[in-house]
Amino acid sequence: MIDRPNYLTPAGYAALKAEYDALFGTERPQLVETISWAAGNGDRSENGDYIYGRKRLREIDRRLGFLSRRMKAAKVVDPAKQEDRDRVFFGATVTVADEDDNHRVLTLVGDDETDAGKGLIGWNAPFARALRGAAIGDLRRVTLPGGEREYEVIAITYP
């Protein structure tokens, strides 16, 4: 399924593991108990607790499988240990300016850690691919849904 590593920051891996542990250790056992109780109440065809519980159990098992595969393929990369801090690599926080001198601050993180509202963009996103390897002052052209734009790298920082 996954032909390339799933790059994650240490915090991103910890978040995946925490979600897995919460689902597997807390929510799933409680749900199994509820389903067992509901099954003992008789007719299952009209038992909402039983029907909903089984549906939710399938969703949890599907999510656990997904999280398990993502963690197995994970390659944890600590951006603080990046040696070449003059170029954009995984974990870099980059300030870019467009043609209208609008500044954006973006952090390149793993695809499972993305949150556009916080400026966290996935390592394999088009914007991140365009910025890879860039140095301060470099111009990079990015094709976005609104059209093609050119961005200049203003600053690069690492944690």
TrEMBL record:
Gene: greB
Keywords of the record: DNA-binding, Elongation factor, Protein biosynthesis, Transcription, Transcription regulation
GO molecular function: DNA binding; RNA polymerase binding; translation elongation factor activity
Role summary: Necessary for efficient RNA polymerase transcription elongation past template-encoded arresting sites. The arresting sites in DNA have the property of trapping a certain fraction of elongating RNA polymerases that pass through, resulting in locked ternary complexes. Cleavage of the nascent transcript by cleavage factors such as GreA or GreB allows the resumption of elongation from the new 3'terminus. GreB releases sequences of up to 9 nucleotides in length.
UniProt KW Protein biosynthesis keyword: yes
Alphabetized InterPro entries for the sequence: GreA/GreB_C_sf, Tscrpt_elong_fac_GreA/B, Tscrpt_elong_fac_GreA/B_C, Tscrpt_elong_fac_GreA/B_fam, Tscrpt_elong_fac_GreA/B_N, Tscrpt_elong_fac_GreA/B_N_sf, Tscrpt_elong_fac_GreB
Gene Ontology process terms (BP): DNA-templated transcription elongation; regulation of DNA-templated transcription elongation
Transcription elongation factor GreA/GreB C-terminal domain boundaries: 85-158
Name of the protein this chain belongs to: Transcription elongation factor GreB
Domain named Transcription elongation factor GreA/GreB N-terminal: residues: 6-76
Source species: Sphingomonas psychrotolerans
HAMAP family: GreA_GreB, GreB
